[in-house]
Amino acid sequence: MAQQAHPNRRDLGLLVLRVGTGAVLAAHGTQKLFGWFGGGGIEGTSKGMEAMGFRPGRESAIAAGLGEAGGGALLAF
């Protein structure tokens, strides 16, 4: 049986889901890191992390932001 030359709807749907989810995660990570899209940046995220009991707050904020931005970008790509 010959393969189709174009992706089927399921493949296209999964691609859209992956890119959309990855973009949302990456955007949320950049909010934490840079304050883009109305985020608090490192300083605001650090204060929030410390309020939640994460010590040290700055390093926790950087790790969370890098994890979200990097993971989201990798998921999208």
Quick summary:
By secondary structure, this protein is mostly helical. It is built from 3 helices and no strands. Helix 1 (9-34) packs antiparallel against helix 3.
How does this model look, in words?
This protein is elongated. It is mainly alpha-helical. It has one domain (16-76). The chain has helices at residues 9-34, 41-51, 57-76. The protein contains three helices and no strands.
Topology:
Layout (H helix, E strand, L loop, with lengths): L8 H26 L6 H11 L5 H20 L1
List key phrases describing it.
77 residues, mainly alpha, 0% strand
Structural class: mainly alpha
Q: Strand-and-helix sequence, N→C?
A: HHH
For the termini, the CA-CA separation is: 30 Å
Helix content: over 70%
* Strand coverage percent: under 5%
Average pLDDT reading:
92
What multimeric state do the chains show?
Answer: single chain
Number of domains: 1
Count the helices. How many? 3
**E-strand count:** 0
Cα-atom radius of gyration: 17 Å
Please summarize the sheet with the most strands.
Answer: none
- The global form is elongated
The stretches of 5 or more residues where confidence is low (pLDDT under 50) are none
